[in-house]
Amino acid sequence: MDMTSEAMTEELPRTARSFRDWVVDILCIALAAVIGLLNAEALRKAPDVAPALLAADQIVGAAACVALWTRRRWPVPLAVTLIVVSTFLPPAGGAMLVAVFTVAVHRPFRTVAAVGGLALASEPLQPALRPDPDLPFLAATVTGMLLVLAVIGWGMFVRSRRQLVLSLRERAHRAEAEAQLRAEQAQRLARERIAREMHDVLAHRLSLLCVHAGALEFRPDAPPAEVARAAGVIRDSAHQALEELREVIGVLRAPGADGGGDRPQPTLAALGELVEESRQAGMSVTLHQQVSDAAPVPEATGRTVYRIVQEALTNARKHAAGAEVGVRVEGSPEAGLKIEIVNPPGGEQGGRGGRDGSPAGQGSVSVPGSGQGLIGLAERAALAGGRCAHGPTPDGGFRVHGWLPWRL
């Protein structure tokens, strides 16, 4: 029996008696009255018994049975009192057994042992002071002790069963609460994952669309060939955005924790293509990739690096148009991967055209931002076992840097 179960049983506040409590209390009082009447009838046969003593036996036995109504509220004082009274007046013995049983049900083992020891010690005294004419001293003593031990064992069994029921009930409530918390956490993680994937995939493509569309808006006098090329870039970017949206949906439907999907996800090997797309949108990007071979890098790690660089380039395109962005990725299986993206303050407005010949005009294009992308990067890096931070540089630029373990 653990202390928690004992405390639950001992300190549980009593409420109004239920129907079951009424039935049990009435049966206990009736049983105590029957035993008391049998004891009183046996003592009536004893020679030279004063009628006043027999009357006292009857009155005290009835009072002891009535006192059992308080056994749930004061079990230990009632049991001790009835043990002492029943030693001199045997008709109270039935009420004493019920009181000892109540102590065994509602109190811890130490209290039960003390009360039970007192009851056992009183058993030899009772037949010595008020001998039973039908039983010898030894038989009466052994019978009394066996009855005390029987009610104590029965009471402790009932108590153990109640503790087991309480423990199982509490465990069921705890399991239900934990299951609800896990379900809420799973929903929250799923929402965060959806938001992170949607932002990482679509923000980059849509920012490219904004750049090229804004360039067409601010260059209405551009040659038809350049306008056609810019429109083609817009069409291709929109098509790629739709394809990547399908990839995101496939990843979210996949059972794996890091996403699987039917289409391949971007890895570190695709970092050059990402930089080239940004250059075609009119950005000036330098890539320093000091990883000997991108192939051995685990896909999940490479995908996280790709998303960090993608979000940093998207933010640079929004807030530092025309500035030269430096991307550095270096590392090894022993040291992990270090990522750093730095850009100085925003460059001159209306920068260069893209390498495909499309008018850039990105400096004049306002691309809205929610500020959630950098927060998502920190969360993504933390989930991968690494870290990612960002902040301004002394010259007014901006720096995103992080570290990822080689294998997640």
Give a structural overview:
- With 408 residues, the chain is of the alpha+beta class.
- It has two domains: 3-134, no CATH class; 190-404, Heat Shock Protein 90.
- It is built from twelve helices and five strands.
- The chain has helices spanning 3-11, 19-44, 51-67, 75-88, 93-106, 109-122, 125-129, 137-218, 224-253, 271-280, 299-319, 372-383, and strands spanning 284-290, 324-332, 336-343, 387-392, 398-404.
- Strands 1-2-3-5-4 form a five-stranded mixed beta sheet.
- It is rod-shaped, with a radius of gyration of 43 Å.
- The two termini are 44 Å apart.
- Residues 1-13, 256-262 and 348-366 have low confidence and may be disordered.
Structural category: alpha+beta
CATH class of the largest domain: Alpha Beta
**Order of strands, widest sheet:** 1-2-3-5-4
How helical, in percent, are the residues? 55-70%
Mean pLDDT: 77
Query: Would you identify the CATH H-level superfamily of the largest domain?
Result: Histidine kinase-like ATPase, C-terminal domain
Which stretches are poorly predicted, pLDDT < 50 over at least 5 residues?
1-13, 256-262, 348-366
- The CA-CA distance between the termini, in Å, is 44 Å
What is the third-level CATH name, the topology of the largest domain? Heat Shock Protein 90
CATH architecture of the largest domain: 2-Layer Sandwich
Radius of gyration: 43 Å
Can you count the helices?
12
Number of strands: 5
Domains (count): 2
| Beta content | 5-15%
Shape: rod-shaped
Order of helices and strands: HHHHHHHHHHEHEEHEE
Q: How would you characterize the largest beta sheet?
A: 5 strands, mixed
Domain Histidine kinase/HSP90-like ATPase: 303-405
Biased composition (Low complexity): 357-371
Region (Disordered): 341-371
Catalytic activity: ATP + protein L-histidine = ADP + protein N-phospho-L-histidine
